[in-house]
Design brief:
outer membrane lipoprotein receptor (LolB), chain A, 13-stranded antiparallel β-sheet, 6 helices, alpha+beta, disordered C terminus, single chain, about 20% helix
Length: about 270
Amino acid sequence: MKVAFPIVIALACLAWPLQGWAQRADAQGATTKKLDLTADEVLEKFVEATGGRQAYEKLTSFVAHGTLEIPAQGIRGTIRIYAKAPNKLLVIQTVEGIGQLQQGYDGRVAWSRDPFQGLREMDGVELANFKREATFNAELKWRELYEKVELIGTEKVGDRQAYVIRLTPRLGRPITQYYDKETFLLLRQDSVYEGPQGTIPGQEYFSDYREVSGVKVPFRVIQKSSLGEAVMSLTDIEPNVEIDDARFAKPTVNDERETRRGKEKGTL
């Protein structure tokens, strides 16, 4: 059950009118001495530590609600995430003073709509990244989603020692993940968002793990980059809810026009 990626989306959308850069985030201080586990073993232990494969496989959908904050810019907002097996995702963020930002994938078309660029379809690396993020229970499917998975060493995250794993997809940049050596919970992830705004690297830090329908999920995610720091705090996650497939579909031109009319009339 993946809920971390929307924070990266939020900063990426807000970066367009602010600033950009092209510095890659990656593990810099990983120790490469002989390791006692393989990458596959670490990832399997993470699945076990967060509930086990059977618990994951009982989940078919979820709806999550939470808050989003970028403290340095005084930006606050709310976030809703809809996810459905096998590969549907919708993220809706409402940001004070900016408006609503949406990203969705219906299993066929990935799309984005925001106040800066309007409605558009994703393609290339951006599409490949979003399709991977939309994969339901991706935690179980790393062999399918990534061409290469490597345990590259150990490194400290805060005061915790962590195994460092690099996952390389067929299309797109590698993702680096840090798993606690004792609890095997995911502590941090380094990744690079790629879209119309350019390349936006960042680090996500996961905490406040809580059990949802037998699976432990981080309810707090801090995303750091040279744009600043963003915090996503979930308030609730509803598992196995019925979600109409139509919710994930790309909005039509008529939908876009009605939204604009509503804003002009003050009804939205």
